[in-house]
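Note on ligand handling. Small-molecule inputs were canonicalized before submission; formal charges were left as drawn, and no protonation-state enumeration was performed. Where a ligand contained multiple stereocentres, the stereochemistry in the source SMILES was retained. For adenosine-5'-diphosphate, this procedure yielded the string shown in the input block below.
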Amino acid sequence: MKIFTTDGIRRIDEATIEAENISSLDLMERAASAVAYEVISRWRPSKRLVIFAGPGNNGGDALAAARMLSEQGYRSEVYLFNIKSSHLSPCCSTNKDRLQDCPNVEFNEVVDTFNPPELGPDDVVLDGLFGSGLRSPLKGGYSALVQYINDSGAYTVSIDVPSGLFGEWNMGTDHRNIIKAKLTLAFQFKRLSFFFAENAQFVGEVKVLDLDMDERAIAQVPTDFYLIERDDVKAALRPHNPFINKYDNGTVFLVAGSYGMMGAAVLAARGATRAGAGLVTVHAPRCGFVPLSTAVPEVLFEADRNEIFTTNIDLYHKYSVVALGPGMGTSDETVDAVDTFLKSYRQPCILDADALNCIAKRPILLRSIPKGSILTPHEAEFDRLFDLHRTDEERLKKAIDVSKLYEVTIVLKGHYTMTVRPDGKVYINSSGNAGMATAGSGDCLTGVIAAFIAQGYAPDWGVVLAVYVHGLAGDIAVEEQGTHGLIAPDIANSVGRAIHSLVKRPE
Ligand SMILES: NC(=O)C1=CN([C@@H]2O[C@H](COP(=O)(O)OP(=O)(O)OC[C@H]3O[C@@H](n4cnc5c(N)ncnc54)[C@H](O)[C@@H]3O)[C@@H](O)[C@H]2O)[C@@H](O)CC1
Ligand SMILES: Nc1ncnc2c1ncn2[C@@H]1O[C@H](COP(=O)(O)OP(=O)(O)O)[C@@H](O)[C@H]1O
Ligand SMILES: [K+]
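Structure output:
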């Protein structure tokens, strides 16, 4: 699913109005009735409803919803903010007029002084102050109003977006000036800003309301942001050819593990084999021989010269894909080994965990990463490489820049893992759960990504599929273990089931 910018959504709104030969007032009726329906399906008419409307079309939606709710027997107190009688948008103004004769509505127009109504946890607030037309962060009276609503404890339902929150970037906005919604009723699309952890406190639960926007415009209006969902992955996964042999499924060379961290190699290897790699070879220090051959008997073991950490990454065979990092450690000898490898290996590779930490210890190596490689940092690994970032938004912006600069794909891992490609496209993952915040789950992901690329999926798309599959494996495993009990081996061992549930069976 495309995630549009505010400008893109405006274009789709306009195209819908033109294609259906309707007015923006008609579209507002559609939006408002969807909002009213949500209120009706959640609360009885006896619920106290306080509605705040701003001067634009977001306010227009709120006023139209108040009218529709009144027709259904709901009482509401409405506050329309028309400060200094500036100007209401035409649709807002028409809906103000339409509201005047409605029963059960206590209408207040705020022009200069505002006496706030008492609000408490038993009340429902409908927030139609500002939507996608927000020009700058809220301040002054609006800021005070937002804080008043937030402090009241009322159940706040935001129309389209929480007022004060921009659809994309919110750097520099004081968090006190944004409505904290319990429920956001987003029109047709989620917004990019909804996916950043720092904004979860504002958007609350998100429900997307289908406004039946013009399909052609949705297909044509460009965007760089996509939400990857089950159907996208289902459509892309290929069933096996019955005559396949293991080499058709690709070979993975995995450099992972060190004394004390051999489990990381096990999890990455298991992720790769469960995701369908034909043959997996693990290069690890000698101490890994027994644990690896016992825990993952399906993989080949290649011993490093060293007993406890990796010191030489030599490729004696040709592999479909090479992945480095899980549990490798960052001893000086390992940093040297990564240095030598990056300077000699010219194919795209996968760099995770300690491979990234080794590069962070010798940042000049960033320039030696083969073009087209895939980097899979979690927040701390990303920040070690590219400086400290305070928010997901800052981190994503930086990832977009460095992905272009070094011509690498960056998988920013988190609740919504974001895969950032050098062409500026960002794929937001929708699978996975909080139980996956457990040691080793990222190691498993490295193996899954390697397996997808080994099996011939184009790397820039294969990585997106792999991230979804890994999250789905977590979702399958969590059904048995719950978020508290989920451990990384559960995820690795569920990868096969995840793929099996997605691959189309022959008719
Ligand atoms: N375009 C359409 O056809 C549709 C739009 N809809 C609604 O329209 C909304 C967008 O409407 P608008 O473009 O009118 O924008 P808004 O209603 O978000 O706000 C615009 C108004 O707010 C004022 N404003 C902006 N930033 C301000 C600030 N920082 N401080 C004080 N005042 C500020 C502007 O001067 C303008 O009067 C959407 O979020 C959605 O709720 C829906 O009715 C569906 C259809
Ligand atoms: N709260 C969460 N919701 C969904 N997925 C999560 C969550 N926390 C972590 N994950 C996923 O689990 C994995 C953790 O990776 P990482 O931090 O590298 O773990 P490790 O280094 O222990 O292997 C990533 O794929 C990440 O997206
Ligand atoms: K709003």
